[in-house]
Specification:
The chain is built from 14 helices and 22 strands. The radius of gyration is 27 Å and the shape is elongated. Helices cover 33% and strands 23% of the residues. By secondary structure, it is of the alpha/beta class. It has two domains: 175 residues, Rossmann fold; 215 residues, CoaB-like (Rossmann fold, 3-Layer(aba) Sandwich). The longest helix is centred in the C-terminal third of the chain and has 19 residues. It has an eight-stranded mixed β-sheet with strand order 13-12-9-14-17-18-20-21, sandwiched between helices. The structure holds cytidine-5'-triphosphate. Cytidine-5'-triphosphate binds next to helix 12, strand 17 and helix 13.
Length: 421
């Protein structure tokens, strides 16, 4: 059997040093390796090291190929059995997804007719960013095999997914790619599953979360508010992003940091929240955790209301706010899975059942706040649906969020299998 030929494109990044070990493993397995270094990659490994290990010329720029008689870029891109990009930086993935060819590496990637395997490496926030997720999805749709990065402590000190998979794992993926048929455009079945089971159960799903209170202004200095801390909603948004979903968090005024990988839109009033929810559609699931004020001041005073000295209190007329959840349930763009929250102090399940029917949602997560007031760190919840009641022990809000994500992922998979969009 002829030796398999790998064209290895090495992007910039601290993980580039692992490419050296990969070349060694591939050579040991009897494969021929040609290396292409991006300009950023050259900052981390030298062409000399790679040339010595691969026993082949190393290419760094389009000008290396100006003598088209010797080896043109088209030929170089097609002489391989497999093109491997390791490390694949966020920038390289974006260029690949966008079909940009502005240097030798990206030109080869656009010109090749061979299967492509990418091993990403980047900061966790960059990996979880909506733009990178979009690019990865597009690339997988185009038939590129994009490995899941490893999870762990990163060179920059943060923790999470984004580390370059170990050279042995990349080598296994290369063996697998070489032994499987060429993936076709839009064919997800060609994707080896590199992620541990249920690692990203919400991958490819778009999820909307509302969280926190709303503030309803009375005048420029006063407002109507409630005690919602936003903690449960933010924990849910964080858990959804960690489970692989694209997350839009519409947040009322709370001083909480935005969880990694979450797109956050801040609002103040119920009317603003309703507008941002509408603008965020369509989504696969909406989880309405916000404690939306039921009423707003009927007239907002432009100037501060002053005491007139007579002892008379100013009239405060209220107007009812729209019910965002009930409105969403009736809208043409109703998410396939619509979840409401309800904090109750008594007859928790009965009130939740009534709310489920009144609001037209699929589940009500009923939160028993009789023992623990709003703003605490734990919740005892009952998931009430047409199918019955699923009661959970009292758990930290993060654990409630993670458990809820598992339940949501199972439900969405049941309704529409993943990657069917
Ligand atoms: N909700 C909403 N818009 C509103 C009020 C509530 O979207 N104007 C949503 C909340 O985000 C939550 C669910 O509806 O998911 C239940 O909220 P809750 O305040 O318990 O409902 P109410 O209809 O206000 O019921 P109650 O009379 O118990 O306050």
């Amino acid at each position: 059997m002829a030796a398999k030929r790998i064209l290895l494109i090495i992007g910039g990044g601290i993980a580039a040093y692992k490419a050296i070990e990969l070349v060694r493993l591939l050579r040991k397995a009897g494969m021929t390796v040609r290396c292409v270094l991006t300009r950023a990659g050259e900052q981390f490994v030298t062409p000399l090291t790679l040339a010595a290990l691969s026993e082949n010329r190393v290419y760094t720029s389009l000008f290396d190929l100006k003598d088209e008689v010797e080896m043109g870029h088209i030929q170089l891109s097609r002489e391989a059995d497999l093109v491997v990009v390791a490390p694949a930086t966020a920038d390289l993935l974006a260029k690949m997804a966008g079909g940009i060819a502005d240097d030798l590496a990206t030109t080869l990637l656009l010109a090749t007719d061979k299967p492509v395997l990418a091993a990403p490496a980047m900061n966790v926030r960059m990996w979880l960013h909506a733009a990178t997720r979009r690019n990865v999805r597009a690339l997988r749709g185009d038939g590129v095999t994009v490995m899941e990065p490893d999870e762990g402590e990163m060179a920059c000190g943060e923790y999470g997914p984004g580390r370059l998979p170990e050279p042995e794992a990349i080598k296994r993926a290369i063996d697998e790619a070489l032994s499987s048929p060429l993936p076709q455009e839009g064919d997800f079945s060609g994707q080896p599953d590199f992620a541990p089971a249920n690692h990203r159960p919400l991958y490819g799903r778009r999820i909307l979360v509302t969280a926190g209170p709303t503030h309803e202004p009375i005048d420029p200095v006063r407002y109507i508010a409630n005690r919602s801390s936003g903690k449960q909603g933010f924990a849910i948004a964080a858990a959804a992003a960690a489970a692989g979903a694209e997350v839009l968090l519409v947040a009322g005024p709370v001083p909480l940091p935005t969880p990694p990988g979450v797109v956050r839109v801040d609002v103040e009033t119920a009317l603003e929240m309703a507008a941002e929810v509408q603008a965020g559609l369509p989504v696969d699931a909406a989880i309405m955790v916000a404690a939306v004020a039921d009423w707003r001041a009927a007239d907002t005073h432009r100037q501060k209301i002053k005491k007139d000295g007579s002892g008379a209190v100013p009239p405060l007329a209220l107007a009812e706010n729209p019910d965002i959840l009930a409105g969403l349930a009736k809208s043409a763009e109703r998410p396939p899975l619509l979840i409401g929250f309800a904090a109750e102090t008594n007859d928790v399940i009965d009130h939740a059942r009534a709310k489920l029917a009144r609001k037209g949602c699929d589940w009500i997560v009923a939160n028993d706040v009789s023992a623990d007031p709003m703003g605490g760190e734990t919740n005892r919840v009952h998931i009430v649906s047409q199918d019955g009641v699923d009661s959970w022990d009292r758990l930290p809000k993060q654990a409630v969020a993670r458990k809820l994500m598992e339940k949501i992922a199972d439900e969405l998979d049941l309704r529409s299998p993943p990657d069917s969009d």
